[in-house]
Amino acid sequence: MLSFQCKQTEPVVFRKPIEKYLFELDGAKSKKAKKQISSEHENDITILEKSRNVAKNAELGSLEEGLNSISKYYHFLKSIETKIPINESQVRIAFTWHDTVRKGKKATRYDTAIDLAAILFNHAALSSQIGASMDRGTIDGLKASAKYFQNAAGGLAACRELVSQRGLGPLTVDLSVEALTMIELAMLAQAQHCFCEKAIRDGMKEGILAKLCQGSIDLFSGALHQFQNQQIATNYNKNWSALLEMHVHHYTAKLHHHLGKEAQEREEYGVVISHLKKAFAEIQQAKIYAKSANAADILNSFLSNIENSIHKDLAQIEKDNNLIYNAPVPDVSKLPRVQGKALVKATPLETLLILPEESEYPFRSLLPSAAVSLIQKYKTDVEELESKQVEEISKQTNIAKGVLAELNLAVLFDDSGTEIPTAIQEGIKKINEQGGLSHVQSLFGEVIAMSNQNKDLLRQIEAGIEAEASQDAKMRIDFPHMKDRITESNKINGNLKATTQGFVQKLKAAASADDLVQQKMQKYRPTFEMIALGVEKLREKCPSSAKDSSGNSESVKAVNIARDAFKKLENVLEKREELSKKLHQAIEKT
Predict the structure, then answer these.
(1) Per-residue pLDDT averaged across 124-133, rounded?
(2) Is the pLDDT score of 548 beyond 50?
(3) How far is CA 144 from CA 127, 158, 244, 316, in A?
(4) How far is it, in rounded angstroms, from Cα 10 to Cα 108?
(5) Is residue 530 within 8 Å of residue 538, measured between CB atoms?
């Protein structure tokens, strides 16, 4: 059975790069602060270093324990890479692994992905070694062997996926996608081989055994196909390709042997001979490849036993056919093909690797890098929001101050009397010279009158169009023989209708605007009426902070209310400035 060796690695320096990152993360600059952080994470770094050292030497002790140590380190490293950004530009930790097929070649990356891929490869290697070492002379041994070969395939599949997804670039040959695919298929083929052997011992029907054999052929052929890749063919031991080729011929021989037995049950003796001749030729080819692969004596003996069995069955059926049946022997290539049945699949990674206890993981106190990034983004967003609020407060405060300065309300609220500002006096004079309120009302009356005229005109047009359409419809009923000669009303009046609808929409918009003007006129009518009195009359009605000669205090009350509102506005502006200062201080603290 095929198995492969673990990859070898070089020591990794975790401590300094990780401590440097932790110092920067916590903003530690003094020796005391750095010493405290180092002390807090001393045990974490030690656990990580120790677990890697044990995992890299997994092949030296018990292989089962080696699998557990690799599983533990894998999960540790997966957890850490979410918390510590180990890469070329941030936390620079170099991982170096040697090639198992090209001696002296190695690959180095500042990325945990290469370490994860390599230890998955080693997990698969240990599984293949355990699977190959099992006693397949028993049913339990066959089951266990099949399990470990499927585990090996699972580790290789996970390794291949990781190498493909993480964009590590060209690595060692054994970590190429082609090599990993080849070994994965070879491991699955060997697991299928175990199921085939078990099915034979269980006395399965010949048809089922044939399908299982075809499944083995498909898997061994898939693995062998990878040797068409120049890199695989050049660097991998020729024994691998020879053994894979041997198994393709071996299982092709068994396939036709089982098909021959099945045909004999149907008394199709010519078909039996065709299958057995093919089986005999294939088993001889298998023996040739076994010899070129320097296969062990036990494998050669295994193939010889199959050869003898096929030869015996072939000799007997040929004798019987010559003496009794005289059945024609068809060309084997024209016989129906068998659909293969594979009972194996790569073990999923989540099932393959044992999870450590939660308390065993290092750096449990660290937040994931994604969470740290979100916290930093939150702080940045808060600073930007505070800055925007300060800017907006300042902007609105300046606008309020500008409006107050323009209105000059402070002058209006002093106790100097009831003099109206010059600008307002000039405005009142100009309005009254142009006709005042009565002129505005007259203009608005004209607008309403024109609007009504337009509405009447539109109603007349719409009525004319409707009358013409009605007349057209009547004529078509009264003179059906002429309807094809008369242009339809809709076609004649289509553009006119569309234009009319456009005017209707414009009239509606104008009416809406007129209503709005009328509402505002009603709302501000008292103001217009005051303006119409003229400057002198208006001056008499202006509120004053002092009681008039008649003792009326209403004007005093109005002025005081306005003055209080003005003071409140000034207080608001002061508070806004105070809030702006506090936000500035908050930004500086963050």
Answers:
(1) 96
(2) no
(3) 11, 21, 22, 38
(4) 10
(5) yes
Q: What residues contact residue 273 under an 8 Å CB cut-off, 6+ apart?
A: 260, 314, 317, 318, 321, 327, 329
The answer to whether the beta carbons of residues 355 and 79 sit under 8 Å apart is: no
Quick: pLDDT tens for 238-293: 899 999 999 999 999 999 999 999 999 999 999 999 999 999 999 999 999 998 88
Determine the Cα–Cα distance for residues 99 and 121; give it in Å rounded to an integer. 11
In this predicted structure, what is the pLDDT of residue 395?
A: 76
C-alpha triplet 297, 256, 237: angle, nearest 5°: 40
Cβ-Cβ contacts under 8 Å for 368 (sequence gap 6 or more): 82, 83
Bridge partners of 97? Answer: 9, 107
Of 311, 310, 308, 303, the closest CA to residue 287 belongs to 303
The conformational region for residue 40 under phi > 0 = left, psi -120 to 50 = alpha, else beta, is: alpha
Mapping DSSP to helix (H, G, I), strand (E, B) and coil, where does residue 9 land?
Answer: strand
What does pTM read for this prediction? 0.66
Q: Are 111 and 87 in contact (CB under 8 A)?
A: yes
Q: Answer whether residue 372 shows pLDDT above 70.
A: no
- What would the 3-class secondary structure string for 66-129 be? HHHHHHHHHHHHHHHCCCCCECCCCECCCEEEECCCCCCCEEEECCHHHHHHHHHHHHHHHHHH
What pLDDT shows up at residue 365? 84
Asked if 172 and 227 touch (Cβ cutoff 8 Å), the reply is no
Q: Return d(Cα 438, Cα 140) in angstroms, integer.
A: 113
In sequence order, which ranges of 266-331 are alpha helices (DSSP H)? 269-292, 297-320
